[in-house]
Amino acid sequence: MKFKVTRDWLKSFFVMIIAVIVMGMCVSLLVMCDMGTDPCSAMNYGISHKLGMSFGNYQLLSNFVLLILVIIFEKKLIGTGTFGNMILVGYSADFFTWIWKEVCHVQEQLNLSTRIAILIPALILFILAAAIYMQSGHGTAPYDAVSFLISDKIEKHSGKNMFRIVRIVYDLAATCIGVITGGEVGVITILMVILLGPTVDLLGRLIKTRRAVEKQAL
Fold first, then answer.
1. What is the torsion angle, in degrees rounded to the nearest 10, for the CA atoms of residue 38, residue 89, residue 146 and residue 12?
2. What is this structure's pTM?
3. How far apart, in whole angstroms, are the C-alpha atoms of residue 97 and residue 91?
4. DSSP labels for 7-64?
5. Which residue range forms the structural domain that includes residue 15?
6. How does pLDDT run across 14-36, given as a tens digit for each residue?
7. For 49, 50, 56, 171, which has the most beta carbons within 10 A of its beta carbon?
8. What total number of domains does the chain contain?
């Protein structure tokens, strides 16, 4: 079966690209708030600082390592979204950090009210953007693919959808590594551990329901 670029494919592709860039922007804002970031970024910020690498470079390197594992066990999870996330989130975070510091001249030490004002919309936007990109149908980043891979294997054996639990435990493990390596771990990280998996799962169910309704309409 030959691959065909359709109007719907292009639409979902550009939505995915925008989503991963927004995720990178939100990571830079969450780091600015100094109250933690998402579990994966918290872990990678900690390890990259330990190694003396930029966040973008280490994010790309770590994703390549995980990519090999995903290719071995479940190739269908790989797509354009995989590489979009691998490349764009880390470098978008670096780019927007530069914008905030060098162009907007945002202070390094923000007062609590300003941090909270930035934190709440950035957290909500990150979770929604992450859920949209994961459910775009263009594959997921190696870090995210591992959680889908584990939950799919469990579902095949038990018949139960365990994605929410798997994702929470998976993100919690990344958070622990972030704590050990001195990454950007804080209240935001804990909120993401609790909220990200359920949000992705809920959005996935809504998209499947919508597609089923559209098929029946045809």
1. 120
2. 0.77
3. 10
4. HHHHHHHHHHHHHHHHHHHHHHHHHHHTS---HHHHHHHHHHHHHT--HHHHHHHHHH
5. 8-217
6. 999 999 999 999 989 988 888 88
7. 171
8. 1
